[in-house]
């Protein structure tokens, strides 16, 4: 039987109006060109529900029983890497035959969806304990203390490659149109290494590291750029310097040089990029640089410097002002990596 066309809402409302005016179902059907049975069904629905709108339909019953839903939900909660094929087999052994699509839809209704696993630094128990210790010790530090810190880090920016990502609006089957693609070359087409620093007051210096980044190069960068950055940012007396625990930063020579220069260094937990606000700034910088689509290394360096200088002052301020939230997140996540 062919499917009949659904009546418009106006027509359904007219049927009810004519019924209330005292007309019979037959008369209404003839006037509007609608079957008498359809008129009767709409009038009965209006009398019961006081509406002519479409009501929610029950739909097809779920193939997976409530007990089966609990079973697969419990399975993926214990082991998020369980595949849909594994769950299909589990249910089949329990006497229920379903498809992978049914598994996906069922878990989605439970608030679970399949996502790519995030890549995060490897945290050993010693790292987790150190992160928790750092967060708890500094949780109640006043905001002014964080504003008196110069944060530093290095990053690599590729000419072409995974750093050059963007979203495009395209039609179906137009994914390979030149306007909708990003060109890549082997090994990223070259890259540059940058060192930079910041405080709540704004950006410090950003420089390109052209030689191998060892302890000698690290000391040279700090000697030429750290103190000038602190002066340009007008840091208060007793300002604190932060850098991570990479070997070049923790060698005896580097530590001795910092001590002789009377730089106060923030004790830092290893494997904690999410605790360093400059990581957020690197991400913003890479997005801006990728949008410029530089074609060679020289242009890439120039664009990095331009975009670094153009980052709004509010960005730096907000990254530091909200620092307590980072510490709270570390504690809430029991020392493991946070969303920052």
From TrEMBL:
Segments forming domain Transposase Tc1-like: 71-140
Pfam families tied to this protein: DDE_3 (PF13358), HTH_SB (PF25787), HTH_Tnp_Tc3_2 (PF01498)
Domain Sleeping Beauty transposase HTH per the UniProt entry, residue ranges: 1-52
GO MF terms held by the record: DNA binding
GO biological process, one term: DNA integration
Domain named Tc1-like transposase DDE: residues: 149-300
Gene3D superfamilies: Ribonuclease H-like superfamily/Ribonuclease H, Winged helix-like DNA-binding domain superfamily/Winged helix DNA-binding domain
Protein name (database record): Transposase
């Amino acid at each position: 039987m062919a499917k009949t066309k659904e009546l418009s809402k106006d027509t359904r409302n007219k049927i009810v109006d004519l019924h209330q005016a005292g007309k019979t179902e037959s008369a209404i059907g003839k006037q509007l060109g609608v079957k008498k049975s359809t008129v009767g069904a709409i009038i009965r629905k209006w009398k019961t529900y006081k509406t002519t709108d479409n009501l929610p339909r029950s739909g097809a019953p779920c193939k997976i029983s409530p007990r089966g839903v609990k079973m697969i939900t419990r399975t993926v909660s214990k082991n998020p890497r369980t595949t849909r094929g594994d769950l299909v087999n589990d249910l089949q052994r329990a006497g229920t035959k379903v498809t992978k699509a049914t598994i996906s839809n069922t878990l989605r209704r439970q608030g679970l969806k399949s996502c790519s696993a995030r890549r995060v630094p490897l945290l050993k128990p010693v790292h987790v304990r150190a992160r928790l210790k750092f967060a708890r010790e500094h949780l109640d530090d006043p905001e002014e203390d964080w504003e008196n810190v110069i944060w530093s880090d290095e990053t690599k920016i590729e000419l072409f490659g995974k750093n050059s990502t963007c979203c495009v609006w395209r039609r179906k089957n137009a994914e390979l149109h030149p306007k909708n693609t990003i060109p890549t070359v082997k090994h990223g087409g070259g890259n540059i290494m940058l060192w930079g620093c910041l405080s709540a007051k704004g950006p410090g210096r950003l420089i390109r590291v052209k030689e191998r980044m060892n302890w000698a190069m690290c000391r040279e960068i700090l000697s030429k750029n750290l103190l000038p950055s602190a002066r340009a940012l007008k840091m208060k007396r007793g300002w604190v310097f932060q850098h991570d625990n990479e070997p070049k930063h923790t060698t005896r020579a580097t530590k001795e040089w910092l001590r002789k220069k009377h730089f106060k260094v923030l004790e830092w937990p290893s494997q904690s990029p999410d605790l360093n606000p400059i990581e957020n700034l690197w991400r913003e910088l890479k997005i801006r640089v990728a949008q410029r689509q530089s074609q060679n290394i020289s242009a890439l360096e120039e664009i990095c410097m331009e975009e670094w200088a153009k980052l709004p002052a509010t960005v730096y301020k907000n990254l530091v002002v909200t620092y307590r939230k980072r510490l709270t997140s570390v504690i809430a996540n029991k020392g493991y990596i946070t969303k920052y």
